[in-house]
Amino acid sequence: MExxxxxxxxxxxxxxxxxxxxxxxxxxxxIEAPWEHQAVAAEHAHAGRSVIIATGTASxxxxxxxxxxxxxxxxxxxxxxxxxxxxxxxxxxxxxGVVRRPARKRRGAMRKGPWQELTGPWIAExxxxxxxxxxxxxxxxxxxxxxxxxxRPHSENAPGPEPEQAQTQAQAPTAQALAPATARRATDRGNxxxxxxxxxxxxxxxxxxxxxxxxxxxxxxxxxxxARRIGAKAKDSLRPDGTILYLSPTKALAAxxxxxxxxxxxxxxxxxxxxxxxxRDERDxxxxxxNYVLTNPDMLHRSILPSHSxxxxxxxxxxxxxxxxxxxYRGVFGSHVAQVLRRLRRVCAKYGAEPxxxxxxxxxxxxxTAASRLTGLDVxxxxxxxxxRGSATFALWEPPLxxxxxERGAPIRRTATAETGDLLADLVVEGVQTLAFVRSRRxxxxxxxxAKRALDEVAPPLAEQVAAYRAGYLPEERxxxxxSLRSRELVGLATTNALELGVDVSGLDxxxxxxxxxxxxxxxxxxxxxxxxxxxxxxxxxxRDDPLDxxxxxxxxxxxxxxxxxxxxxxxxxxxxxxxxxxxxxELPLTDADLALFGPTTADLLPDLVRRGFLRHRPSGWYxxxxxxxxxxxxxxxxxxxxxxxxxxxxxxxxxTVDEAASHTTVHEGxxxxxxxxxxxxQTLDLDDSVALVExxxxxxxxxxxxxxxxxxVERLRSTAWGEATLCFGTVEVTRQVVAYxxxxxxxxxxxxxxxxxxxxxxxxxxxxxxxxxxxxVEAFGDMDLAGAAHAAEHASIGLLPLFxxxxxxxIGGVSTAVHPDTGLLTVxxxxxxxxxxxxxxxxxxxxxxWLRATQNAIKSCECESGCPSCIQSPKCGNGNDPLDKQGxxxxxxxxxxxxxxxx
Length: 904
What we know:
hydrolase, helicase, nucleic acid binding, DEAD/DEAH box helicase, ATP binding, alpha/beta
């Protein structure tokens, strides 16, 4: 048990340039002054310095970028005194819900716009057009029609067994689907605020997607043509307000931010989401009129940048790019996003814009370095958290051992999901609103189902107050769950890390974390969901039967006395960079001046892309040569192809989707699939048609896929001698095939059986760290089971690497052998589970002495005799955790570390 003390807040003065209207709205919301870190970060951004604000959960990071963003929209336009008074009056009327609108179709006097003060020979032609084209401010959208939130959550790390992140872009429309309609839409300022479709039917974007503006009817084709003749530059020069691009890793967070912007009632802020859930007919409106666009890296990569000419007006005025939850951009995903941001900077430069980047992150080590690597810019860090917080109690909970025995007679603990389900039920009975974070989609469903079953026995009505939340649900299901959580209709919610990010759910009392979430940053981010309103809070980490979880509950100083990890990403990874160079060339031809922007390896990769026929080199630069979309070459979430649709065979009902890369392990034939508390068994997995057919069932077991893995060394990049032992880092090729699945009883984890599978193998070229022992060292061990000892050391080292690298156990893999064909020696490999590598193995090589000593300590301190899931057994072992030799692993590691450098 650990107590986190309460902290007093430190206030600062509002920046002098803060828009007065915003300050009035914030004061009405109870915000009288900013915290120091908010004011400091806002001042940096307003002064033109890119900045990252890396402070704790619920520290108000959004205000740090809201201040300069609203100033960019409101503060640039200079109007006459009468115009200022008229605008202030309009804003005041909007704030109290009073808006006077002209009669529909009326062509009378127009509200005076800033262009009407201008003079020049072309003004006579321009004024009537602009008077009709610029939309009128209107009463806040949520007063007019019901909400229809459009975010879709995502964020578990690809390529885990069930990565959540791929879902944000899995159903994103292609560029072809986003092609402009034949008939262009325009707006009419004086006709009462409707928009006409090509067929003449009035339509409007729903309130949930657009803030503070009412689309108006189309102008005539002649007027539109006349406006285009004047030229885009002349039009934009008369619209001096800046634009804001907001990026979040999940749609849920973007929707939450949109709701917060709506609550400010700033009528000149035309905010809208632009993501895979945005209807096609609304996207034109967003491009033409929104000045605060909330989207995600996937839509920026696949839609906005490839069609940047259609966004020219927005990009030309782009003042700020907000990158929220920046600590989530790590590994291969973060490396892809880093290149997407470089492409954005390049396209903005074409239109004469050089936006300032404002990054918001949970507390992280070396935030300025990580932000600079992500954006390619010099970034200032603000990390001194001045916000107040209530006290929190943090408990570490280890489930008890049962009387059951597992593989090779190892004792079995009660499962973490079963324990979490019971804890969630207990808290719901006490009326404690709780989020239970679970590592996988299936686990979230299992926890919710377990809590419901427990409540059915003691308080049946309360079972309806518990649900599951995860990616793969339909958008309307997720929006309904979010609304129910805010209104406290739901008291208990089991969720994946889709709700880990900054969705503002105030009033939560407790958080239960089912299994180590992969990093300290994620742990504190999840725990911080409770107590956001300043009240005292409870957080509980329930340990899984896993070496790392066991190590942490017995060494709490590794959690509470250690700084959070650095963010690991590698934008120069050629498997990441090459497709983005192609995408950049398709947007604008690459030139020599662009090489520095994309990194030092760019010059070496371009000739190979030319040789393979992706690019063509001309004296003026490198050009994309193909008809297909270059953006499709880069799969930034690592989803590995089209998502698999999960369909109920009897009814044809679409239950959800699963990433193609995870389909072999989650929706193989015979797999148990859970959706909203309903259980199904997969009857057929059709990879060609990307569909899994399921049937309703109520099995009392869960399923776990097993695979076999082979590895070969492609290139040794670095090596270090530890006496006769050698530590290496380099490129390897991994071949992996799912060959069977196991069935275990849900509540106890008891093994029920195993069935074979026939699925294709996958090949992965990646980076690995490996170590070898010399023949003389091995000979000194006598008749020890070398294969079992190496296998046990491999499992334990995989389990402990996430303590040193910003990764999850499912982000990495391993192979061990008494004699590897490429080395001729006893060899243990740990590799990145991402094409090209993600930096995890490289971090393991850098911290090898400390990492392997922690591995040795974890095995040594475990109470079992011959090995168990808490030390050397792996939940994803393709060999059924056989052979394993606990004492042999300790002997190998002792010999390996005998001449290792001391830990830092």
